[in-house]
Amino acid sequence: MPHRWSPRQSLLLCLLAAGCAAAPPPASAPCPEPPPALGHSLPTEAELSAEHERLVKAYRTNDVPALERSLAPDHVHNNVFGMIQGKEELLADMRAGTLVFRAYEITSSSWSLKPDIAVVTGTLRAEAERAGKPVPSQDFRFTRIFVKREGVWLEWLFHNTIIAAPRK
Asked: Which residues, by range, are in coiled-coil regions (predicted)?
């Protein structure tokens, strides 16, 4: 019987593959980048950064219609509370006022680009409330995976974690 991957295992494999694809080859064994598939060209960082800024603005302004257009139907949102939400759950929380952003700003970012997938990692500063209570931190590390579907870049995965204060 073939092995069936759980959604979490599949997500982990995808993240590992994206990380491996983004890692440079060891100096002792150079491996040239394969050419893009026919009909597919590598996106530019400027193209993806503009899409990322539109997405960030939608979060910052709680613009649910813009997020509906920017998130993939099978979007996965892993938040700082350890919750995994799909697109509809996340947007329902925002519509209901359960999740409200007061501020949202990218403070650093680094991209890995492929013809139909882009990974951005970095830091962000956000002020938000969940269920009327302030999120206990404002500084986060994040990873976003964008996928290109029918010519449109969509956020497929978002994961963030609180940046811990340095130990003294």
From this structure: none
- Using CA atoms, how far residue 83 sits from 41, 73, 139, in Å, is 35, 18, 18
Query: Among residues 54, 146, 122, 133, which one has the least CA distance to residue 98?
Result: 133
Partners of residue 124 on adjacent β-strands: 106, 140
Fold of domain 11-19+41-162: Nuclear Transport Factor 2; Chain: A, (3.10.450)
Indicate the helix (H) or strand (E) that contains 156: strand 152-162
144 sits in which H/E element = strand 139-149
Tokens 């980048």 sit at which residue?
33
